[in-house]
Amino acid sequence: MLSSYRCAGFCFVFRRQSIVLNAGFNSKDGNFFMKENQTPALKEFLNQTHQDIFDDKSGTPADYIPELAIVNPDQFGIAITTSDGFTNEVGDASIEFTIQSISKAFVYSLALELLGTDKVLKTIGIEPSGEAFNSIRLKDDNRPFNPMVNSGAIACTALICQNNGQEAFEKILTVLSEFAGRELNVDDKVFSSENATGDRNRAIGWLLRNADNFDSDVEEVLEVYFKQCSILVTAKDLSIMGATLANNGINPVTKKRVIGKTTAVQTMSVMVSSGMYDYSGEWTYKVGLPAKSGVGGGITAVLPSQFGLGVFSPPLDKLGNSVRGIKVCQLLSEYFHLHVLETEDDVNQNIPITYDLSEIRSSRMRGQSDNETLEEFGSRVSVFELSGVINFIGSNFITRSVAEEEFQDFIVLSFIRVNRITRASIEVFRLFFDQILSKSQRVIVVDKEVVKDHPKGLFGEMVDLIKQNCQCFENLDQAIEWIESQLIAEYGECQNNSEDFSPLADQLLLKGLLNSDLETLQKNVTSIEYETGSKIIQMNEKADGIYFLRSGKVSVMVGDGIYVSGLDAGTCFGELALIAPDATRTANIIADTKVFCSFLSIKAFNEISIVNPGFSELLLRNLGLILFERLKQSNSKIIALSAM
After folding, report:
1. pLDDT exceeding 90 applies to what percent of the chain?
2. E strand or H helix at 33, and its extent?
């Protein structure tokens, strides 16, 4: 079915459904513009889906419970709650109806939390039954087939009754309210109707009691069971409840943990195999989302880690599932390719950027000799800027890629752009970091949370292992700067440290200067010493000259102590004063060590230039070359980034 939706003279058509953007057309300039009250695209999809499916009048409301038979069959609501807690809802998404069998999934999760997996599995199986949901038959070991059929759900309720006694239903109502993020209530009329007509469920209850599945009073257990089925919810509630399962048991709206992560996974697993009655196999084949339906006309479906879906429409098909609800889920899954077994992961997205340090460098400015060392030996470093969500296969790809760099001196793994590392990939990294000490490579990890021992960071408890085996930095520039210093110390012919004294003639800005001009310059510079921590240049002060750094190290800082770059002996700073003498300083320069500078004032520079115009021409040409080299390094990084 191809649908279109017109808005202000144009429409968007996307395969089976249209996604409408709230836009307008400016007749004066012929341009489209977005209105301020733009509707989210997903909500417009739901609006169009609701409109297209509403006219399907097939199916009938459940009639074996009198109160369900009298509901308005035209009621139809859809809601999606995403894992960040935002809900899109259309139609009758706020109309209350009874949860019915959808309660089975959430009560099962409660039983797992209260009693543990082993105890629950001893009482209730997890296999599809192949029979009707209200079948009066047990497995050969006298267990119900699974918690999504009536026998399993009643046995599950009995477990909670045995554990919580007279408070069993209050516990169920409280937990389901936590799933929904609001206080839920019971429809007393539906409860009375179910209790009066629930003879088949009584037969199932007595069968379970006779099979020693539980020893509680059958009528007491059934009273709790009928009440839990009579809890009032809305499609919006179901979407939030589903989103709580999808969000590993944490309600994305209230941010409160309702159940544990393992419990959420176990519950969704049973929903996949048995949540849609006898339609479960075909549902998984066509829709591919963990789901649970109820004869009240509701369906909740889940896409793990992404959203919960709630649909309400009373007319049911022959298998007891909402006709419109099934269609909504099918269209949503097919259109957006949401089947849990359909993946689009590409391990290459985990390593979008790789490079060495022969061209791409840190922001620290170094002298000519050091730069030549880095040009020659920078290729002995491999930098991997990782990104995205790293799963099992992604972590294998990363560690395998590192292993292929066995002849490199340094490997940098930057996790700055990584959103999440799955539990499986953490175990792969655990093995990887365990093996690092046996290799000659030095591995550098860039991750702020590792440096700060953050217990809830990407690596959790593995932080200590990483810090034992790796050098760790908060940001990538710091890591690269540290490696550059290691390369210079190992391979450089003459390494500068804070005590070295760099000749003025070695300054890149003065390259090619005649000896006579150099002598003139030396007579016009002022020698200045600064102690560690001194502020050499104050941001926003007048640019009155240029500093030649002869020994020591300085940092360029902006704002509230934000590090921009560093400079070593043999470099200069404040040089833009040569081309913009009336400008003000754009950063603070702080002495990291004891510093010795030769300062050339703009006044002295101008006086020399008047006598010898070639002097200023040479310095300005060299300044252009220096700026060009900085631009070239920036372009190299941009080229690497463009490979993402």
Report:
1. 52
2. strand 31-34
Percent of the chain with pLDDT over 70: 87
What six digits make up the tokens of 615? 């002097």
How far apart CA 525 and CA 197 sit, in angstroms, is 102
Residue with tokens 């609006």: 47
Other CB atoms within a 10 A radius of the CB of residue 579 amount to 13
pLDDT given for residue 129 in this prediction: 63
Please tell me what DSSP assigns to residue 322: B
The DSSP letter of residue 362 is -
The whole-angstrom separation of Cα 549 and Cα 590 is 12
528 three-class SS = strand
Which sign does the torsion angle of CA 400, 401, 407, 410 carry? Answer: negative
Q: Where do the H-state alpha helices sit in 567-612?
A: 602-611
How far, CA to CA in Å, does 6 sit from each of 22, 316, 409? 10, 32, 61
Pairing verdict, β 410-421 and 381-390: parallel
Cross-strand pairs, 458: none
Residue for token pair 């080229």: 639
How far apart CA 617 and CA 317 sit, in angstroms, is 88
Q: Which residues, 6 or more positions from 397, have their beta carbon under 8 angstroms from its beta carbon? A: 347, 348, 350, 351
Q: Is the dihedral of CA 490, 494, 496, 500 positive or negative?
A: positive
Tokens (6 digits) for 506: 């070695």
DSSP annotation string for 450-509: HHTT-TTSSSGGGHHHHHHHSEEESSHHHHHHHHHHHHHHHH-SS---TT----GGG-GG
Summarize pLDDT for 2-47 with one digit per residue, the tens.
343 333 333 333 333 333 344 443 434 444 444 445 567 888 889 9
| Bridge partners for 353 per DSSP | 385
Instruction: List own/partner pairs for 420-425 with CB under 8 A and 24 or more apart.
Output: 420/389, 420/390, 420/458, 421/389, 421/390, 421/395, 421/458, 421/459, 422/389, 422/390, 422/391, 422/392, 424/391, 424/392, 424/395, 425/390, 425/391, 425/392, 425/394, 425/395
pLDDT score, position 22: 43
Q: Which residues are the active-site residues?
A: 101, 104, 225, 277, 295
Number of CB atoms found within 10 A of residue 552's CB:
25
What counts of helices (H) and strands (E) characterise the chain?
22, 24
Closest Cα partner for 543 from 472, 456, 612, 601? 601
Helix (H) or strand (E) holding 274: helix 261-274
pLDDT at 304: 92
Query: Which residue type, as a one-letter code, is found at position 609?
Result: S
Strand-strand pairing, 307-312 and 77-82: antiparallel
| Torsion (CA) 386, 388, 391, 395 in degrees, nearest 10 | 0
CA distance 235 to 256: 20
- What six digits make up the tokens of 642? 């463009």
Q: What structural domains and CATH numbers belong to the chain?
A: 5-51 (no CATH), 52-336 (3.40.710.10), 347-491 (3.30.750.24), 504-640 (2.60.120.10)
Query: b/e string for 498-529 if b means 16 or more Cβ within 10 A?
Result: beeebebebbbbbeebeeebbebbeeebeeee
Whole-model pTM: value is 0.69
| Tokens coding 471 | 């050098």
